Amino acid sequence: MENYPGLVTAIIIIPLVGFLINMFWGYRFGEKISGAIGSVAALLSFGVAILLYIYLLNSNFAAAVVNPPILDRWIEMANGTLSIPWQMRVDTLSVTMMLVVTGIGSMIHIYAIGYMHGDPRFSRFFSYLNLFLFFMLILVTGNNFLMMFVGWEGVGVCSFLLIGFWFDKTNGVGWKNSLAARKAMILNRVGDFGLLMAIFLMFWTFGTLDYFRPGEIANVEWAAGGGHGEEAGHGEEGAAEEGHGAIPASVTVAMAEGRSRQQAVQQDGHGGEGEAAAAEGEAHGETDGHSEPALPVYTDNNHIETSQLGVFGQAERMLEDHHEVDFGPFNLPIETVLVIITLFMLLGAAGKSAQIPLFVWLPDAMAGPTPVSALIHAATMVTAGVYMIVRSNVFFYEAQLSSFVVTVIGVSTALAAGYMAMGQWDIKRVLAYSTISQLGFMIAAAGIGAYAAAMFHLVTHAFFKALLFLGSGSVIHGVEHGHHLAHERHSHGHGHDDHGHDAHAHDAAAAHGDDHAHHDDFDPQDMRNMGGLAERMPITFITYMIGTLALAGIFPFAGFWSKDEILLDGYLVGFFGDKGPLYNLGGFIALGGLLIAAGFTAFYMWRQIQMVFFGQARTEAAHHAPESNAFMCIPLIVLAVLSVFGGFFNTPSNVLGLDNIFGAHLFTSFLEPSVLHAHVADFNPFLAIAALAVAIGAIMLAHRIYAGSKAVTASNTDPLYENGGTRRLWAFANARMYWDQFYGALLEQPFNRSSKFLADKLDWAFWHDYIHDTVIFKGFNAIGQLLSKPVDVGIIDGIVNAVGAVVRWIAQWGRGLQTGYVRTYAVTLLLGVVLVIVLLILPALTQAR
Amino acid sequence: MPESAISITTITLFIPLVSMFILLFLKEEQAQFIRIGALAGSLLTLGAAVVMWAGFDITNPNLQFVQRGEWIPTYGISYYVGVDGLSMILVVLTAFIVPVAILASWHMHVLEERGRQKLYYIFIMLLEFAMIGSFVAQDLFLFYIFFEVTLVPMYFMIGIWGAEQRVYAAIKFFLYTIAGSILMLLALLYVGINAGTFAVPEITAAVRANPALFPFAGMFSTQSFLFLGFLIAFAIKTPMFPFHSWLPDAHVQAPTAGSIILAGVLLKLGTYGMARFCFQFFPEASVAWAPTVGVLAVIGILYGAWVSYAQTDVKKLVAYSSVSHMGFVVLGLFALNAQGINGAILQMVNHGISTGGLFLLVGMLYERRHTKALDAFGGIWKVMPLFGGLSLVITLSSMGLPGLNGFVGEFTILLGTFGSEYLGFFFALFATLGVILAAVYSLYMYQKVFMGEVVKEENKHLEPLHWQETLLLVVIVIVIIWIGVYPSTFFGSMDASVNQLVQQVSAVAQSIVSR
To answer: From the list B310, B435, B488, which residue is nearest A756 (CB)?
Structure first.
């Protein structure tokens, strides 16, 4: 059993192998095999994630730190001035993320086999998906912030590759796609800048970037409590694997039972006993003690040197002692340092998790194929920011100011994005804004300290948002096909009989999301072109409906439970929080803002359902849309089941006896060993009913506006626009609040102009042409002329003559080049150079002697 | 210090020179032999450099593989060569870049057009000799000669096989660099004569024994002027903002191999010189001037990136990105701590490989399309998928993607800058903004060239990569990933020397503070 954590190496390697195979040989395989390789890699990783989960259950949630075999060191310098290992952490938080990433990932891989059918770069697509899994798993399994950063930027690149996957589409669409890809990467880099700064600050505060050192315990209170009441059946020692297993990784497991932090430190201090392999493999920059000039080493009031602790453990100690961090010219109290660190982290989270002010890339990212939108831009990558905040909960919990800012950012993002979603026509864009809004929920939850609720919502959201995106892909696919079928019917008389051949061409075009064959501007993603699809695509409809209800937070679907837990925590923090007024205010903001945002959610989702599935088919395409194939439907069904039951992972303890069936607060308890500040809040029926009422009210409102014959066609506009009172409001939402224009005017244009100015005017016209070629060059000659006559002293004369000579030779040689006598002049110049050097050196030497 | 009969350093140094003389005896018509001969010579050098690296004792901070012989004893000038951690991997870098440059010339159009292949390869070998010489020379005078000799072959490479304005660019390159060198020469003579020797380790020892050898009394005193004499020469070579004006000309006009060598190795002579001479000889002045140099470095990082984005010529874009990257290197050096200097030296290697790689890519595009205008391309990824993929890796490495080489250097540099006693938070803050700008111009370039629909007829059927080209790119990508995931190979060999250097400087800095 103790060998299991080493498997975490495999979970990362498997997608890498899948990537390499498909990258280099994929083009030979054909779709079935390529798709199978990609999907099997994802499924195998999922299997490993399950094994790790089982390991955690069986070992009483003992976190393990794993050094991969062979490649254990990364950035290391002597004397321990810098030591960042490739090192992974298996704990309940990372395993949760692994399960989500690989589980949802597997479904989406399978779905993509159907969706990408006929695409000329089919195997490339699967290699990218596998590469994404690889980086995402590095992100969630790393035991230090720099590994997180590797994954962080790695998934950014995969996102770039996949948004720009159809970079070569015709009619300028390809260019737009690649622009969207670039935009995503650059805005993410802005966030990465924040994360990098946070990393520098952490390093110079704590001298390490490790979350926890091997053997260290993340949640001491929880551990002291005997690990959630389960009896301690395991050995006291932190056991380390000697690498005799199938996977020779060095593994250090922290057993959690009743061990205080000091013990944990000491245990690690002399942890060498019996873990030779681990100690050897770690190469952990053991502090030499004698020469540690640059790194901060902190000894706390109990005279315990904390360099054996990771960043979080050290932060807690420093907070207890009100430590002042020495940054050379100035000292800062640790509280302030944590605020700065967390604010920089928030910038990073805003980039990756698409929060205000950096969210504008995500709607554009819908240019990628739909499976990508589901996997990367809804379920996994964009939640990385939430994961980071939860991972750093110790910092955020202590940095009240930052937490408040986090809450405000999260709530305003949830509101703004929810609002913008109401004004969109594109089925995927609605979901994109919805995703931003829901990420706002998670971020806000993390802001009020409801870390478990944030993670819970992350998980359930992954289920139903992946479901919705895949459903929308199925709809688009169907409408696209319907369009072709309709077209074919019309042009049948014109001698196109070769159906089999045509159908294949259509598939390829359909997978491309646009139409090469017929140059019309039919948009299969525009909801105005849909309607009445419920009958034609029953499986898609039912699963989509489930996803909608889950997202809207209707009892008993998954979203209800997770959203309710966030609201509940907001309520508790607002009314009963005891950490100062700012803390309470954050709670109120979260409660009020998110309730409204929940109303928005239900409204725009029902609007979408009405426009897509109900009413009459408004185009021929919608009229002929067929149901998608099994590859696409099976993942839909699986995710729908999860969206129904996913909420029961964390049922509160007193609701309708559900806890007797599903257990109470299971998920929160699962997270507790790795999340210090996981809340356990109990169900509040009034709040739940209020939230439910808001959702149902919004649905009814949307139903009144959009149901039945009132549904819009391509020629007219939204009923809200027709209505005078809401006209401007809707138009503003439809224009996406002019964010893009705002950034264009505020940042993009000035940057372009200033860079043109710097390049053409300042650097070239002024500095290059004027100063260098005119002033210096001519001035040099002029001064040379002037000095050579009156000041006829040895050195100056020599220099000037030399320079003059060089210039003359060069000029002659330049002419010579044109006449072809290069060699002669080359030799002349060579001699000239030697002569110059000699001329320069001789007088100086003789004078000096 | 042991002075063996013939050290491997000398062997590595003279293989290129010997190859050059062998090339002299070949006939111009035997083009294939000339190329193979040059390649063999450079590969032999690479082999020798690798043997040297393998035998290099990474725990020893001092000079290794030393050889010393009398040369001009009257003036204390000797043939004195050897390597320590600072120069070891730069020698390996040089030995790696030169075969790359030779292979890049294999199908070069301009060589067939203008002829004189023999001369061309002779110049490359002479250049390699001079570059390795600059890195291994442990005598100031010897260094100076090598440093200057590098100019000559590069001058001719630009001037003979360059683009339209080659003569102008060559002259500018030459005059600009030599103007700086004159200042260095004066400072160097002063140093050598006052110390009574030109041997670098002896001067260093003399400085440590007698800090008043080059008296320091503020930012404008004897030591500071000497420091500036060296610094300006190196700053021009690097080039640091605002001395970068020769670089775009030289790069745009130079043939592909010239650009690769220029970016890959020659620019590093500047930053290497700062670490080797400025810090060791003038520690107080280095400390005193660190913030000023740091400001220029940060400006260079941002300015280079900013200007790079507005370029319409691919080569010019890459040239300006070099200004930005070398700004990182200088910043890391003047952080004057272990992280910064280690990172800076690694970043020299990284920049050599990534930017050298980028120039290689531009060269390959040029060979096919005979233009370097960004607007002439578009959608190349679809036409040449393998080329597009490999180019993406190189571009990403240049913009510092974690897991690839550029990140390790940039990260350690910025980390060092942040924790530096002489630079600190704001330097790191602004320099880190350069990371964003790097993404802006790199991706802009990549998108313009490789993405979008193939609109232009000329781009629809491009010749696929030759095996030499594929091999080159694959080797470069392998090195990029290797440094990215396991930089310990490189940090390990420079660590000891860098630590010694840092300790020397910080010891002096303490004395300034306590004074």
So the answer is: B310
